[in-house]
Design brief:
Largest sheet: 2 strands, antiparallel
Order of helices and strands: EHHHHHEEHE
Mean pLDDT: 87
Strand content: 5-15%
Oligomer: single chain
Low-confidence stretches: none
Length: 160
């Protein structure tokens, strides 16, 4: 079995092509944001809030032993493994005002994208299983691969 190539940035090539490097990465960011807005059928702030809540639990699973591999699977996570995210934590993580977060979370609760849970909120269990989210993940992976291929063609990303 062959080893996986390590991808690295050539800082000199990145500096020499800084405008192009920045454009490719920023373009991927904008395309990814548009993909997420379509998949969730939400505006920018709402997507930011839903992702912050969803990723809070994934980050916890990745930081602690995950013998079942739940962070990398499509299996539903048991209720006792889900830790609610407070509105204050969402405001802190997103940079949105606490009032905006409170108002947007109330709206997301009404439309079923988030659920009230103990002392905070969590995402609805069905979100990750929805075909739109699955398709958007595939689209984001292709966007990332395309950006990496372009950066590699330009000598900005090199394989070790």
């Amino acid at each position: 079995m062959q080893g996986v190539a390590m991808l690295m940035i050539d800082p000199n090539a990145a500096d020499a092509k800084l405008r192009l490097s920045g454009f490719l990465v920023a373009n991927q960011f904008l395309a990814t944001a548009a993909t997420l807005r379509r998949a969730f059928d939400l505006g920018h702030d709402d997507v930011l809030i839903v992702l912050t809540v969803a990723l809070g639990n994934v980050q916890r699973m990745l930081r602690t032993p995950d013998a079942q591999g739940l962070a990398a699977s499509t299996a539903l996570v048991e209720q006792d493994r889900i830790i609610p995210v407070s509105r204050r934590a969402v405001a802190r993580a997103t940079g949105l005002s606490r009032e905006t977060v409170r108002r947007r979370i109330n709206s997301l609760l009404l439309c079923g994208k988030l659920l009230e849970w103990e002392d905070g909120v969590r995402t609805a269990r069905r979100l990750i299983l929805s075909p739109q989210i699955r398709e958007s993940i595939h689209e984001m992976l292709e966007l990332t691969a395309g950006t990496c291929r372009a950066l590699q063609r330009e000598g900005i990303i090199i394989a070790d």
